[in-house]
Every structure is written in C-alpha cells, then in structure tokens.
Amino acid sequence: MEKNSNLDRIRIVLVEPQDGANIGSVCRAMKTMGIHDLAITGDRQYDENRVRTLALHAYDLYENHSRYANLAEALSDSVLSVGASRRRGKNRKYFALLPEQMAKRIDATGEGRVSIVFGREADGLTDAELNLCHMGVRIPTSDAFPSLNLSQAVQVITYTLFRELTSTAGFEPIVESRLQKLSQTVGESFEKIDFFKQDEKSEVERFFRDIFARATLSEGEAKRLEKMFIKMARIRIHKNMDKDTRGQ
C-alpha cells in the first residue's frame, strides 16, 4: 500500500466529547497532519460557534463528520480499531502499543478503515468501550502529571501517524566517504590559491573533515560548501591571470 494512502483510511473517533471547543481543537490537530475523517458518538448537540472558533480553517472536518449512536456502530466497518487510554486494570487491555508501534501495525494491516478511538475529556473510555477495540495505544507521560487533554492526545497520535505513514523526507547526514570527498575539495581549492606554505594539505583536510563531521551536514549543505570553495579558487586564479595579462 502507498504510504500516503494510509492517512486517507484513518478515522478519528471521539466518544461522547463534552465540549465543542475541544472538538474544534481536534479538527485542527487532525487537518494539520493530513487526516480528515472524524466520527463522533452520542446524541449531544454542540455549540457550532465554539467548534468554529477553535477549528478555524479546519471547521470543514466538523461539517463533514459522521455521527453514531454508540461506539460499536462507529467501529462496525473498521478492519483495525485502537483505543487510546493511559489507565490499566484487570478488565482493560493487558497491553498497549506506543504511538510509533501502532503506526507500524497500521502500515502492516491490509486495506480498509482504521479507527483510533478517544474517550471523554473527564474519564476517558470505559472498560467496555476499550474492549470493543482490537488493541490499545498509550502516550507516555510524566507520572507526576500524566493527563493530556483531548486535542493534545489527538495531536500526538496524528503527528506520529503523519511522520511514520507518509513519505516525507527527513534529514539524512552525509556518510564518511562523502565527508572525505568534501574535505579533499577544500584541500584542492586551498592548493590552487597557494594557501599552503609547507606540506600541510593532508593536515588541513583532516581538520576540515573533523569539523564537517561534528556539524552533521546534509547532502545539500555539502554541495553548497563544495561550490563555495571551488568558486573561491576560480576567482583567485582568474585574478592572477588578469594581473599577468596587464603585466605583459
């Protein structure tokens, strides 16, 4: 399955949320991470102005959300459902995945809707609701203050999904062979402008190689540095040629 298509099948399910402002914040959290399918359970009516105020340009997610009488109905067409909860107990899931582990599980799951379920702001999911889900997911937090509000929890989960399930390029530092090549270019450029007074080219190359290694350069940065040193050498050569021409 294409990486980016994984996000299209993610549904965020809110179980009986208590406040429209929280729903609006959830919409923003979802849309910033490329997830647009929102479902809400229960028959509570929400102040649309409160939703809109917090959702801003993500209000369309609320306008197009699906409404279900209960969680069982909301999960009826899901091939995988995951309940978000930090609490443990003998009647709750005996294990919970970390968000990154959940993303890998989703990536390995065949085609079909994947629902991630979030409970009420005050007391989360009941034991029965969590048991309707195939597995649990837990966001690690400090024992001193472990509670995240609803939109924060959704933001952490959706960010992790976006990072893990899309082909967005991350930073990749250059490898040792590339460092050597860059350092050699620096040494050759200095040599062309007669910088070395003694046999110190190898020492200078090692010096720059160590600096570049500590800087953790990307390929783009390495190419730019190469161009700068090569241009420096060419400018010096051309100036010397101009002087020789004027002296004739």
Describe this structure in words.
The protein is of the alpha/beta class. It folds into two domains: 5-165, SPOUT methyltransferase, trefoil knot domain (Alpha/beta knot), CATH 3.40.1280.10; 176-247, no CATH class. It has eleven helices and six strands. It has a six-stranded parallel beta sheet with strand order 3-2-1-5-4-6. Helix 2 links the parallel strand 1 and strand 2. Helix 2 runs parallel beside helix 3 and helix 6 (99-107) packs across helix 8. The chain is elongated, with a radius of gyration of 28 Å.
Descriptive tags:
single chain, 248 residues, alpha/beta, Alpha/beta knot, 2 domains, six-stranded parallel beta sheet, 6 strands, elongated
Termini distance?
70 Å
User: Helix segment count?
Assistant: 11
Query: Which stretches of 5+ consecutive residues score pLDDT under 50?
Result: none
Query: Which structural class matches the secondary elements?
Result: alpha/beta
* Helix content percent band: 40-55%
Tell me the count of domains: 2
- What is the name of the CATH topology of the largest domain? Alpha/beta knot
Radius of gyration: 28 Å
CATH superfamily of the largest domain: SPOUT methyltransferase, trefoil knot domain
Q: What oligomeric state do the depicted chains represent?
A: single chain
CATH class annotation of the largest domain: Alpha Beta
CATH architecture designation of the largest domain: 3-Layer(aba) Sandwich
Strand count: 6
